[in-house]
Amino acid sequence: MVSRIIIAALVIVIAALVVKLVMDSRKGESEADYKLPPPETLDARDVAAFIDNEATTFRVRTTCDVLPGGYSAAMTPLLVDWNKSDLSPGGEILLLNINHGGNPVSGVTELRSAVIRPDRIKKVQFIMVPLGGPEAISHSMIRFIFEEGGAEFSGGDRGVAGKPDKLEDLMISWEAWRAPGVDYKMMKGMDPETYELTCRTYSGPQRFLEDALMNRDWNMYELNLPGGKDGYIELLKVALALGDGASRHSIVWMIEDAERKWKEEGLDSDSEQSSAASVWRALKERAGASSAPDDDPRADMTGKTGYQSLIRSCATMALYVVDLTVARLIEEGCPHKGMRPTQKPEMVEEPAWMVELGSADIAGILKWTPKALAYARANPTVIPGNIPKALEEAGLFVMVNGKPWNKRCSMQGDTPWGHRWQLLIR
Fold first, then answer.
1. What residues contact residue 168 under an 8 Å CB cut-off, 6+ apart?
2. CA–CA separation, 272 and 73 (whole Å)
3. How confident is the model at residue 415 (pLDDT cuts 50, 70, 90)?
4. Residues 119, 89: contact at Cβ < 8 Å?
């Protein structure tokens, strides 16, 4: 186990060095072929209409639409309308910003609102998405699969004839929130000031399509939690509480930062800008005034909304959701049959050397390599490829013939919904 951790950590360090050398060699290259259209801030009135459920779909241009502060509108995180949600048994949750129905090739993202019924969760999967190269470097997500009627888009398909658009599964994906066209860089992400943390939701088919277009497979494991189905319900509630909490803190500071810039640039005196600013301020107040009815300090994301490549990454945040859920279920007395969190669920501060890696040159990377290796040995799940083994050892996977249930899916063969020949016109 230790040797695997060391090898994986070395792979990451070496990969970072190679990427830096390649990027440095390209500094003089023209980027004209990849130039995106200029960013355009969303109309706050449209955002308000979506939040108020006056519109059930919010369509944005993936490559140019932004929120105040320049963050990609297509990467807008989940929000829960707690005032219109009922968390009691048999209740419904109103969820906003589910990515479904857009066309990645045409540069259109569609965000939908939906009603989720936690009591109708059928099963939950932990998804690993290898990003190319060593599988130690993978994206991680949680997938909730619902029984019939467990989830449905709000408002139906008004004005659309034919069959209704179904929502059969929901993906929870933590990501590095940034401006359109800005690539995520692992080393830059060591500094939590570089990217914001966003918890995005997708329908399963939408996310699978986007991964397939990037030649990325899904490696699926089925979760087994204390309390059985009650464990699945708790997992969804914890995921939404954490994701919504991070979303609201981010939105508030983004608008506050934009307000300062509007004032410095004298834009508040412009009548049109002043009107837009007042709408954004109202949305900021709404975001700050609402929160999940959860007083567990371990679910509080205050001051923890900066993406960090090791401590608050896509993989470590997905695992944190599972670990916190398992800990809470055990504390509540759920039968757990030897199940346990993979580690104590707590949000830790990133040490100074990690932050320095965000802007380090090659000499700096080499300087901090011993620290990185030592940290990886002490915290093996910061390397995504180690997470499935950790979940297995904690008793949190469904086992078949002594091995974790596991299925690898790609658009080249079987997908979670059938073989591509069953799904595509040919």
1. 145, 146, 150, 151, 203, 204
2. 21
3. very high
4. yes
The DSSP letter of residue 387 is H
Query: What span, in angstroms and rounded, lies between the C-alpha atoms of 124 and 299?
Result: 20
DSSP symbol at 278:
H
Specify which residues 171 forms β-bridges with: 143, 202
Q: Name beta bridge partners: 403.
A: 400
d(CA 110, CA 97): 8
The Cα 54–Cα 341 span in angstroms is: 41
Q: What is the identity of the amino acid at 315?
A: A
Question: What's the start-to-end Cα distance of the chain, in Å?
Answer: 46
Per residue in 245-258, pLDDT (tens digit) is 999 999 999 999 98
**Element housing 252 (H / E):** helix 229-264
- Decide: 151 and 168 in contact? Cβ < 8 Å: yes
Q: How large is the angle between the packed helices 362-378 and 2-25, nearest 10 degrees? A: 160
Count the neighbouring beta carbons within 10 Å of the beta carbon of residue 300: 17
Evaluate whether 142 touches 127 at the Cβ level (below 8 Å). Answer: yes
pTM, whole model, 2 decimals?
0.91
Q: Which residues pair with 59 in a beta bridge?
A: 110
How many residues in total does the chain contain? 426
Residue 217 identity: D
Residue 13, both tokens: 């360090």
Which run of H or of E encompasses 356? helix 352-357
